[in-house]
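Researcher: Go.
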Amino acid sequence: MKKLFRNIHLYLSLAAGIFIMIACLTGSIMVFEDEINHFIHSERYYVEAKEKQLSLDVLIKTAATEGKNFKVANIKTYSDKNRSVEISIAAPEEKAKGEVKNGQKPPQRGKGGVSLTVYINPYNGKVLDVENKRESFFKKVEMIHRFLLSRKEGVGHYIMSYSSFFFFFILLTGLILWWPKNKAILKQRLKIKWNGTTKRLTHDLHIVTGFYTSVFLIVIVMTGLVMSFNWINKGIFTLTGSSTESPKPPQSQLKEIGYHNLPYNKLQTILTANFQDAESVNIRMPKEEKDAISVNVSYHHDSPNKSDTYYLDQYSGKILGQLAFADKNIGQKIRSYIKPIHTGEVFGLTSKIINFIIVLLTLTFPVTGVMMWLNRIKKKKKKVGEAF
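Model: Structure:
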């Protein structure tokens, strides 16, 4: 049985090793995406706080000038007085469907069109920066990490997904092979012999480091598999007896034809009155006449997944309903933790550092594994030669 597990461990590693290294390298880069962005582009995110901020209506009009015929899609504000306001503006849907102008189709963004994020100083209305996140460095790293620069359901997506699937079995068989027969071997497999031979050091780096990181890696890989395979994602809801569907959002009450939408200044008053304790408020503007304004509220010291969503009538500003994190079913709560656990965000900076170290160490496994395999081949050839 041990030989069988060794062969599974070896050949799956040889098949997926290079892609596992790519996933780990890109994953380690993305762990501190926010921190790196905020450091490199501090002028985009931070401003000097003053007494009074400009009205939301003024900020919206400023953002709208950055894209001709673009519509406001999202508005994100922070309780931190030193943070800029982030306003996402998107191209109309007809452009997203491939309208040709001057012989060229516009860039695509999933089901929607081109989207720009405009960073504005809320005190003087100055545009600090305009970003197309789809063209950012970290977005490209993510596309390599998930799809090998392919697309969802593309060849690269399947390669990375099944490489992660293989990695899960590589980790399991690795733990089985690591398991010691007695206490003496256990002591050897719990510490690295730094003054040993090159072969021994290579062996210990692979075996010992592999053991200490395996538990964390299994969790990281499993969460990645949930996001890669729909059947695994559905399995969470099946096992918990939960529905995958969230309650249908309430609709705005259109009173009369041609009735104008809620003024942004009034919306700002409503937000200030109801969500003063929020760390950040992300407002998603409605696309249709009967859609509600969706307000996603995150609170201080909470995991990024534990946010509440409120629905506002786009004409009156009345709160029509809410979907609090506490009201979600078990399956939805578990599913909401998947990405923060995978990225290391779940416990803030501490879990990010752990995630980063674990993923970096994983980059050494294919190297030490191949070295051990080559040493084993040389040893077998030497034995065969001595036999003759």
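Model: The chain has 14 helices and eight strands.
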